[in-house]
C-alpha cells in the first residue's frame, strides 16, 4: 500500500494541506487514518479514524439495492463508531502542528479522500465539510497533464453555463487555482436514479436543447474528432482491443449520413447516474470535465442509458436496446425526437462513433485495465453489430460468428472437423462443433443468450454436450454443438482434455485440434455410428495427412491394432474393424469401473430426458398442378432437415391410412402406378351417390388418419409436409373424381385438426400452362381464384392457424418466405 499512501500524501499536499509520512520538525502531529480498497487491492477511500460521519459515501453511487444496503451498513457503523471494521487497513501521516489548533483544517472538519480512476485522466478528490455545516466542498487535484486540462475545461464550462441562468438546472459553484478545482457540494438531500425515465423530463429536455442548432456534419467539432480518432486507431495496434470492434466501427462510419443538416447541442459529456441528481423538478449536474459545446443531439441521453446499464451490473446491449426503445415511444420524448428532424437510431450511431473512437485512445494509454473497460468493449461491440445488422450492411449470422471468434479467445477450445477459414466463413447450412470445457460452455451460453442479435435461443443439454440453436434478428439460424466429452451412447472414445491441451492456432487465428486428434475424432464419430466418413472429410484429411508426420497411420496400426495398408481404406466403414475398435475402447480406463458405471448412468439420464421429444407440426402446400409445389416441398424438406435439425416426412394428399379406392381392385402398388400415369381431373364419375360414397371413404381417411399422423409423427417430433391437403377436396374435388358442392366439402373441414401453417402457391396462368399443358388457362384462373377466396375465408376465421398465399415466381424468394414462417413456428414451439 506504500505507493497508494504516497499518492494520498502528494495529492492532499497539492490541495494545500502539509503532509508527510515521516515525523519532522514541522510536520509533527500524527493523523490516524483508515482506508478501504478497490477490488484490485489498491486504495480507494481514506478517512480519519476519529470520524463518525462517513464522508466517503459522497464518492459512492447509492442507486440500486446492493449499493443502498452497503450505504445503510456504513451509516449504522459510523453512528456506532465502528467504521474501523469496514476498513481494509490503516496508516498514520504527519501534518503541521498548527493544524492541531481548534480552527485547524483537519481537526475541525469531516473529510474523506478518493484516489480516482486510473488512467490518463486521473484525478484525486478530497471532500471537506465543517462539523457544524452540511455544506461541503470537493477539491479535485489533477494527477496528470490531461487531468489538469480537464479541470480547466470544467471551470470554464461551469462559468459559461452559470451565466445562462437555467430555471430547471442547478450547477455547483466553482473556483480554480491551476492544479485544483474547488466545487460546491450541491448533492445534499438530492436523489439519484439508474433509470433515465425517472429524471425530471422537463428539466432534462431544457438541458438537452441547450445551444440547439442545425449544422452540416462536416462543420461540427465532433465529426473532426471522429475522423482524427479513427485515423489514430488505424495506425496503432493493441491486442487487447477486439479486431471485430474496430472493423465494425469503420463500417458504421462509412455508412453514416454525412449530407444534410444535423442537430447539435451542448453536452455534459459524462451524464451518468453518479454525476446527475434531482430535487423535485430540478436537475443537478456535477463533474463537467468532459463537457462540449457542439455534440450530436441527445448525446447525454444515450450516455446515461449506456453507462447505467454497463457500469451498474453489466446488463449488456440487450437491456440498453430495450430501454432506448421504450424511451423513444414515451410521449414526452417522441415529440422532441420528431422535432429534431433526425432519426433516433442515427443519433445513437453518432454517439457510438464519438464515444468509442475517443475512449479507444484513452484505454490504449492505460497499461492496466479495470474490469469495467472489458464490459464497455463488449457492449460497444454488440451495439455496433446491432446497428450494422439493422442497416443490412452485414448479415446477422456473419456478425455473430465474428464476435463468437472473439468470445472463444477467452477459453480453451478446439473447433472439430474444421475445414473453412475464419469462423464467419461457416456456410449457411453448416454448424460448428466446438470442444470446450463444461465451465467454458456455461459461460459462453450466458454471453450468447444476452446477445442483442439473438432473438431466440434453444439449448438441449446432454451429459457430454450442449446443442445450441439460435434464431437471429434477420431470421437467420446458427447451430453450435458445444462438446465437453467425446461419447457414443455410454462409451467414451477420446479424452477431451487432451484434445484441448494439444490444440493449435491455425492461420486464421482459430484453435483447432492437432491433425491426428481431429482425424481420430472424426473417424471414430462416424464408425461408432456405423457409417463411412463423408467424402468432404476424406479429402480434408488426405490433404492434412502429411502434416501429422505419419502419426495417423501409426495410431491406427498400433493403438487400434488395425491392419491398415492404404490410408484411404479406413474411410469406408468396416463392421469387423469397428467391432475390434469397440472392444478396444472398452479396455480404456475411462470405460472401466466407476467411470463405466457413471457413463451408463449419464447415458440413461440423457435418454430419459429426450424420451419425449419436442412435438412436431403440420405444414400444407396447395396449388394447381404446375404451380411448383413439388420443388418447393423438396427444398423445404432439405432446409428443415439440415438447418432446423428436425425429422421430416412428406405425405401426399391424404394421411393414406386407407388406400386409394382402386387399390381394392388392382392392389395398392398397381393402383398407385395407374394413379401416377393418369392425367389429373380426367375422372368420368358424374353420379352424385357414387361421389358421396367416394367422399365419405376419403373423408374417413382424413378423420381417422389425422390421429394416426398425430401419434406416428407429430408426437414424435416430426415436421409433416402435406403435398396437397383437404383443401383440394373443397376447391378441386374433380381431381379426386368427385362431383359435390364445395360447401358440403368445406363443412367437413370443421371436424379436422387444423394444420398450423398452410401455403397456397400460385402463378400466372400462362406460366402454369407452359408447365402443365393439360390445364386450360381459364381452369387455372378459376381454381386460383377459388383457392385465394378460401384462404381468405379460413384466415379470417382462424385462431392460431396461418393461411398464406404465395406467388411462386422466383424459387429463392418463395423459399425465403416459407422458411421464415417455418422458423417462427418452430421456435414458437420451443418457447
From TrEMBL:
Transmembrane segments: none
Highest taxon above the source species: Bacteria
Gene Ontology MF terms: transferase activity
Keyword vocabulary terms for this entry: Transferase
The Aminoglycoside phosphotransferase domain, residue ranges: 214-314
Protein name from the UniProt record: Phosphotransferase enzyme family protein
Source lineage: Bacteria, Pseudomonadati, Bacteroidota, Chitinophagia, Chitinophagales
Amino acid at each position: 500500500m506504500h505507493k497508494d499512501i504516497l499518492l494520498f500524501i502528494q495529492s492532499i499536499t497539492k490541495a494545500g494541506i502539509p503532509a508527510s509520512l515521516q515525523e519532522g520538525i514541522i510536520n509533527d502531529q500524527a493523523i490516524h487514518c483508515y482506508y478501504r480498497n478497490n477490488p484490485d487491492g489498491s486504495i480507494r477511500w481514506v478517512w480519519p479514524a476519529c470520524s463518525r460521519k462517513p464522508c466517503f459515501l459522497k464518492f459512492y453511487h447509492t442507486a440500486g439495492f446492493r449499493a443502498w444496503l452497503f450505504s445503510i451498513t456504513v451509516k449504522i457503523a459510523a453512528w456506532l463508531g465502528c467504521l474501523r471494521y469496514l476498513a481494509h487497513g490503516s496508516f498514520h501521516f504527519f501534518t503541521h502542528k498548527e493544524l492541531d489548533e481548534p480552527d485547524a483544517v483537519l481537526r475541525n472538519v469531516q473529510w474523506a479522500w478518493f484516489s480516482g480512476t486510473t488512467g490518463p485522466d486521473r484525478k484525486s478528490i478530497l471532500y471537506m465539510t465543517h462539523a457544524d455545516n452540511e455544506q461541503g466542498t470537493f477539491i479535485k487535484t489533477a494527477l496528470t497533464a490531461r487531468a489538469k486540462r480537464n479541470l480547466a475545461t470544467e471551470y470554464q464550462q461551469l462559468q459559461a453555463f452559470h451565466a445562462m441562468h437555467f430555471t430547471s438546472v442547478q450547477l455547483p459553484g466553482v473556483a480554480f487555482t491551476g492544479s485544483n478545482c474547488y466545487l460546491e457540494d450541491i448533492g445534499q438531500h438530492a436523489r439519484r436514479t439508474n433509470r433515465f425515465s425517472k429524471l425530471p423530463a422537463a428539466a432534462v429536455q431544457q438541458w438537452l436543447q441547450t445551444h440547439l442548432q442545425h449544422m452540416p456534419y462536416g462543420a461540427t467539432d465532433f465529426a473532426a474528432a471522429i475522423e482524427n480518432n479513427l485515423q489514430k486507431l488505424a495506425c496503432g495496434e493493441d491486442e487487447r482491443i477486439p479486431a471485430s470492434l474496430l472493423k465494425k466501427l469503420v463500417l458504421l462510419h462509412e455508412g453514416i449520413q454525412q449530407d444534410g443538416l444535423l442537430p447539435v447541442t451542448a453536452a455534459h459529456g459524462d451524464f451518468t447516474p453518479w454525476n446527475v441528481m434531482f430535487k423535485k423538478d430540478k436537475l443537478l449536474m456535477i463533474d463537467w470535465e468532459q463537457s462540449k459545446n457542439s455534440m450530436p443531439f441527445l448525446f447525454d441521453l444515450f450516455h446515461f442509458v449506456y453507462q447505467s446499464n454497463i457500469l451498474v451490473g453489466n446488463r449488456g446491449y440487450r437491456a440498453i436496446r430495450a430501454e432506448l426503445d421504450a424511451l423513444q415511444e414515451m410521449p414526452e420524448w417522441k415529440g422532441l425526437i420528431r422535432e429534431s428532424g433526425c432519426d433516433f437510431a442515427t443519433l445513437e450511431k453518432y454517439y457510438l462513433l464519438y464515444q468509442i473512437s475517443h475512449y479507444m485512445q484513452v484505454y490504449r494509454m492505460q497499461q492496466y485495465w479495470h474490469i469495467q473497460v472489458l464490459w464497455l468493449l463488449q457492449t460497444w461491440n454488440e451495439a455496433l453489430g446491432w446497428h450494422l445488422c439493422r442497416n443490412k450492411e452485414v448479415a446477422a449470422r456473419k456478425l455473430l460468428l465474428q464476435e463468437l471468434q472473439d468470445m472463444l479467445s477467452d477459453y480453451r477450445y478446439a473447433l472439430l472437423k474444421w475445414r473453412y477459414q475464419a469462423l464467419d466463413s461457416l456456410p449457411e447450412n453448416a454448424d460448428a462443433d466446438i470442444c470446450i470445457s463444461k465451465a467454458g460452455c456455461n459461460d459462453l451460453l450466458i454471453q450468447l443468450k444476452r446477445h442483442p442479435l439473438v432473438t431466440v435461443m434453444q439449448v438441449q443439454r446432454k451429459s457430454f454436450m450442449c446443442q445450441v440453436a439460435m434464431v437471429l434478428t434477420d431470421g437467420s439460424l446458427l447451430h453450435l454443438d458445444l462438446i465437453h466429452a467425446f461419447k457414443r451412447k455410454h462409451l467414451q472414445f477420446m479424452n477431451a482434455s487432451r484434445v484441448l491441451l494439444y490444440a493449435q492456432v491455425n492461420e486464421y487465428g482459430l484453435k483447432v485440434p492437432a491433425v491426428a486428434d481431429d482425424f481420430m475424432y472424426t473417424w471414430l464419430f462416424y464408425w461408432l455410428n456405423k457409417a463411412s466418413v463423408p467424402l468432404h472429410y476424406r479429402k480434408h484429411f488426405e490433404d492434412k495427412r502429411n502434416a501429422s508426420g505419419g502419426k495417423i497411420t501409426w495410431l491406427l496400426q498400433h493403438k487400434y491394432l488395425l491392419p491398415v495398408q492404404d490410408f484411404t481404406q479406413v474411410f469406408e466403414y468396416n463392421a469387423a474393424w469397428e467391432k475390434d475398435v469397440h472392444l478396444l475402447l472398452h479396455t480404456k480406463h475411462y470405460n472401466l469401473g466407476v467411470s463405466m458405471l457413471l457413463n451408463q448412468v449419464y447415458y440413461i439420464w440423457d435418454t430419459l430426458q429426450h424420451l419425449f421429444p419436442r412435438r412436431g407440426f403440420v405444414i400444407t402446400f396447395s396449388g394447381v398442378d404446375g404451380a411448383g409445389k413439388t420443388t418447393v416441398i423438396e427444398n423445404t424438406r432439405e432446409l428443415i432437415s439440415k438447418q432446423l435439425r428436425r425429422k421430416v416426412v412428406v405425405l401426399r394428399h391424404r394421411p393414406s391410412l386407407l388406400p386409394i379406392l382402386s387399390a381394392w381392385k388392382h392392389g395398392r402398388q398397381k393402383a398407385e402406378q395407374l394413379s401416377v400415369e393418369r392425367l389429373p381431373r380426367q375422372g368420368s364419375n358424374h353420379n352424385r351417390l357414387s361421389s358421396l360414397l367416394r367422399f365419405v371413404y376419403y373423408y374417413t381417411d382424413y378423420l381417422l388418419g389425422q390421429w394416426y399422423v398425430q401419434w406416428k409423427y407429430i408426437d414424435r417430433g416430426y415436421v409433416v409436409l402435406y403435398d396437397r391437403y383437404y383443401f383440394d377436396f373443397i376447391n378441386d374435388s374433380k381431381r379426386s373424381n368427385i362431383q359435390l358442392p364445395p360447401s358440403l366439402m368445406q363443412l367437413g373441414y370443421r371436424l379436422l385438426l387444423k394444420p398450423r401453417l398452410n401455403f397456397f402457391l400460385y402463378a400466372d396462368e400462362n406460366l402454369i400452362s407452359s408447365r402443365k399443358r393439360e390445364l386450360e388457362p381459364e381452369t387455372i384462373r378459376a381454381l386460383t381464384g377459388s383457392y385465394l377466396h378460401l384462404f381468405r375465408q379460413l384466415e379470417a376465421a382462424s385462431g392460431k392457424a396461418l393461411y398464406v398465399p404465395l406467388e411462386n415466381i422466383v424459387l429463392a424468394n418463395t423459399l425465403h418466405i416459407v422458411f421464415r414462417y417455418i422458423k417462427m413456428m418452430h421456435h414458437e414451439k420451443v418457447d
